[in-house]
TrEMBL record:
It comes from Saccharopolyspora montiporae. Its cofactor is Mg(2+). This is Uracil phosphoribosyltransferase. Allosterically activated by GTP. 5-phospho-alpha-D-ribose 1-diphosphate binds at residues 77, 102, 129-137, 198. It catalyses: UMP + diphosphate = 5-phospho-alpha-D-ribose 1-diphosphate + uracil. The keyword GTP-binding applies. Its EC number is 2.4.2.9. The keyword GTP-binding applies. The gene is upp.
Length: 207
């Protein structure tokens, strides 16, 4: 499985803001949006483009656009904070939604929303979720997508735990990961260490 760690100094600075326990919700959401922009930028680096002629005020030249804009799928709640920024960079993208809550005892994802195109045959999908912890939520989401025919899936995450990456690898699903950091480990409560806490709570408050 291809895992790309975006270790740019600006990415590291935004991630540090998100990790810092003193950072409030508004600042956390801003840093998440800015880091999303950097991760999407890297995730589309090798995207196929269509060339078409354009006219500048001076001359005719080649213009470019994405050949196959990916479907964007934020995983609620936490992934919602990445959705607008990703859409801003890829305005022609369609967006679907998956809602999952991780059971605090079993750590298994409980689905509560699925709003996706029926047929994803041959489509590329970007799944947006700040945290890849045990990997249960991401594997569940990617299985949903490949079940509808998605050809390749990119998981865009602020942080990934080695345990979650291993689970994705073992799943054999057609996925690659773009993240700002692979952290040390999961603790006994299933939190990423050092991590940043609970991304959904830090964006929107605890429920
Ligand atoms: C968090 C996070 C991921 C999931 C990661 O969501 O945003 O979706 O847990 O954990 P996993 O890799 O072990 O499955 P949570 O269930 O806390 O819901 P929220 O986004 O509504 O806060």
């Amino acid at each position: 499985m291809d895992t790309r760690v975006v270790d740019h100094p600006l990415a590291a600075a935004r991630l540090s803001t998100m990790r810092d326990a003193r950072t409030g919700s508004a600042e956390f959401r801003s840093a998440l949006q800015e880091l999303t922009l950097m991760l999407i930028y890297e995730a589309t680096r090798d995207a196929e483009v269509v060339t078409e002629p354009i006219h500048t005020p001076v001359a005719r030249t080649d213009g470019y656009r994405l050949a196959n804009p990916p479907l964007l799928v934020p995983v609620l709640r936490a992934g919602l904070g990445m959705a607008d920024q990703a859409h801003r960079l890829i305005p022609e993208a369609q967006m679907g939604f998956v809602g999952l809550a991780r059971d605090e005892e079993t750590l298994l994802p409980t689905p509560y929303l699925e709003s996706l195109p029926e047929d994803l045959s041959g489509r590329s999908v970007f799944v947006l979720d700040p945290m890849l912890a045990t990997g249960g939520s991401m594997v569940y989401t990617i299985s949903l997508l490949t079940g509808r025919g998605a050809r390749d899936v990119t998981a865009i995450c602020m942080l990934a735990a080695p345990e979650g990456l291993q689970k994705m690898e073992d799943s054999g699903l057609p996925v690659r990961v773009v993240t700002a950091s692979v952290d040390e480990r999961l603790n006994e409560s299933g939190f990423i260490v050092p991590g940043l806490g609970d991304a959904g709570d830090r964006e929107y408050g605890s429920v």
